[in-house]
Amino acid sequence: MALELNDIYEKLRKLKENLFKLSLERRTPERLKEKLNEATIIYNDYSVLLVSIRKQIDNKTISGESLSLVKSHCDKIVELNAQIQEFCSKLHLPVTRSSCEQFGETSNLESKMEFNLKIALSLLPVMNNEELTTRQLIDGIEYYSSTLKTEQCKLSLINFVLKSRLSQQAKLSLKSDYPSIDALLTDMRMILLPKKSAIALQNKLQTSRQDQRSINDYGKELTELFMDLSIAQAEGKTENLKILQPLNENKLLNVLPTDYVIDGSVR
Fold this sequence. Notes:
The protein is mainly α. Helix content is 71%, strand content 1%.
């Protein structure tokens, strides 16, 4: 992760260096616009990476010194973008609202962001009628929507999912429009995921044993069972899942094998 951020930083640093070296005669609006577009393309790569970074921070995959290093790289990238934008502005190159959003408002680890098509394409898989892919799509929608700054951005996400991420069968099963992310996710869980009995899942959890399996295989099964249990108990409703999932995750921690690896860390 740090290497990818450093690569983006170096690209921006060289671009800024070349930009500042331009002679007065070569600082034409066309040339400056070209350089600003180059910086925007580089920053789009950063935007995609930033979503992945935030997710890893939430999952505690990145912490300690690694997190400090990542934040340091992000701060440097933000500063470089600001310098490039300021330089172009001083030379009377119009900076559009979208350019401001690209360069400033979505650039740190804490801030919310605008809907970004490139991020959505990289984060959300296309359905292929396999349960795993459907679950990945649902999880991706839920996470990406939490990073968006306005309701309009979330409506753009809904439109993107309905138009380009669903299989033909799913399109026929779901509505053609949804007023909110929660409404979309509720229908996706209720209609697109196979229904499982909460009682049957609880019975399976009570009788599950490691036997000859490895710690990781057994831990993975328990994790999946508790996730399925949360979804079954929530009856497809997102607001119920938000309450039940943390409760079941706490129960999961109490039954997982001591040496089971969670998000890169050993229990």
